[in-house]
Amino acid sequence: ITDSGKVGIGLQNPSELLQVNGKIKTQFVKFDDGSSIGDSIAFHAHLTSSASIAANTSAKLVFDSTVFNTSNVFDTSSGEFTAPETGLYSFSAQVHFDAGASGSSMKLELRKTNLQGGSDSLSVTRVNISNNAAHSIQIGGFLSLLDFGEKVWLGISHTSSDSINVQNSLDQTY
After folding, report:
1. Of 9-23, 57-71, 99-113, the least confident
2. Residues 9 and 21 sit within 8 Å (Cβ to Cβ)
3. Which residues are CB-neighbours of 14 under 8 A, at least 6 positions away?
4. 118 or 87, which is more confident?
5. pTM to 2 decimal places
6. How far apart are CA 81 and CA 75, in angstroms?
């Protein structure tokens, strides 16, 4: 430790408040801007009740409960994941719904809200509704490079003249 309070590890005259000459081993680093390195980032969200999507419309699916949510990266009030650091992220989603009118289609879309206020589509899956039976739609293992603070959410839209009921269950995940 120098007279000016600078700490050197592996050197005698550090030029910074903390300067290390060698490797550093740590489990977690948090920066002033809120970003971090080394913390586990994972969540499993689901619906606790069914959600009705009005006829021929689009909506954000707000999964209102989590099985686990390390680092509090998923907001159950908005249905959004917020990237706690710049990095590569993997997303999967599965939704079960009661079909609307035969001949219509359903679209499940993973969207990214960027820091400039815009929104980009990351992945889209469509299913054609051929009868009035229950259906499932999924996005699996999609990878996206996100910047610190960018948000990802799940949207659903359909062309049915009837409303669509999104079912609640633990395997309905995001």
Report:
1. 99-113
2. yes
3. 2, 6, 7, 8
4. 87
5. 0.71
6. 6
Q: Is 102 in a helix, a strand, or coil? A: coil
Q: How sure is the predictor about 172, in pLDDT bands with cuts at 50, 70 and 90?
A: very low
Q: How far is CA 114 from CA 40, 49, 88, 157, in A?
A: 22, 29, 15, 21
User: How many other C-beta atoms are found inside a 10 Å radius of the C-beta of residue 97?
Assistant: 23
For residue 123, which of 157, 154, 82, 80 has the smallest C-alpha distance? Answer: 154
Q: Which amino acid is at 98?
A: D
Strands (E), 12-146: 18-20, 29-30, 36-37, 42-46, 51-53, 58-61, 65-70, 74-75, 80-82, 87-98, 105-113, 119-128, 134-146
Nearest alpha carbon to residue 79 among 146, 152, 168: 152
pLDDT mean over 152-160: 85
Encode 1-16: b = buried (16+ Cβ within 10 Å), e = exposed. Answer: eeeeeeebeeeeebee
Give CA–CA dist 42/91, Å, rounded: 10
pLDDT category, 49, cuts 50, 70, 90? confident
User: What mean pLDDT value characterizes the chain?
Assistant: 81
